[in-house]
């Protein structure tokens, strides 16, 4: 009678979650880093332009994103920090940081879209240029950069949602940087040399049997 082996065939179930974790991790890192970079870059560009009426005629005015609102840039930095912090925490802490990442993205989108039609920054510049506190900007127009900042915020939001959904599958910071509760292995001293009395006394002080029995 032929023998029947009882060795089970290898199971491949863990490959699915592992592959999903790696894919979602790569997507979140790319989306978050790119989103923060895009949002920060967009806030340094010209968002709006117009003219102010002065004695010599029309005076051209421009406003950068940072002049209009500082919220997108600030939230982009917060989102980037949260993206890095995701790997330093676990369980509930990871969920909290992932939520901060997602909210940073949503806030960046909202602030950028609100700034796309804002004229406050140019009105203030018009008042300064004309010397009239009630002066407002004329021929107001906006560029596409506020919407680029909103796209950056959307990418941050996607990274946050990926972290909320798949963050439990992602690796955490290496345990060698953490203080574990297990005691460190004790070094074993070399056997005492019978020909050297000082080593015999040291072995006795350590509570060891110098005879090696």
From TrEMBL:
Entry keywords, A to Z: Membrane, Transmembrane, Transmembrane helix
Amino acid composition bias (Basic and acidic residues), ranges on this chain: 193-213
TM spans (from-to): 25-43, 70-89, 96-116, 144-164
Residue ranges, compositional bias (Low complexity): 182-192
KW Membrane (keyword) present: yes
Region (Disordered): 1-21, 177-213
Name the record gives this protein: TIGR02234 family membrane protein
Species the sequence originates in: Streptomyces tunisiensis
């Amino acid at each position: 009678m032929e023998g029947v082996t009882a060795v089970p065939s290898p199971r491949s179930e863990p490959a699915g979650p592992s592959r999903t974790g790696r894919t979602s991790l790569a997507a979140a890192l790319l989306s978050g880093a790119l989103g923060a970079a895009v949002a920060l870059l967009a806030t340094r560009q010209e968002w709006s332009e117009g003219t102010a009426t002065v004695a010599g005629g029309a005076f051209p005015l421009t406003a950068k994103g940072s002049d209009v609102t500082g919220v997108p840039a600030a939230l982009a930095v917060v989102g980037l920090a949260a993206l890095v912090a995701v790997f330093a925490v676990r369980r509930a802490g990871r969920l909290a940081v992932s939520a901060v990442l997602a909210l940073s993205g949503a806030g960046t989108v909202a602030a950028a879209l609100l700034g796309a039609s804002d004229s406050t920054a140019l009105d203030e510049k018009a008042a300064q240029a004309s010397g009239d506190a009630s002066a407002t900007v004329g021929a107001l127009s906006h560029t596409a950069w506020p919407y680029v900042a909103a796209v950056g915020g959307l990418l941050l939001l996607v990274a946050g949602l990926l972290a909320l959904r798949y963050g439990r599958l992602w690796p955490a910071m290496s345990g060698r940087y953490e203080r574990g509760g297990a005691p460190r292995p004790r070094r074993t001293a070399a056997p005492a040399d019978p020909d050297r009395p000082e080593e015999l006394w040291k072995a006795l002080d350590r509570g060891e049997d110098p005879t090696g029995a």
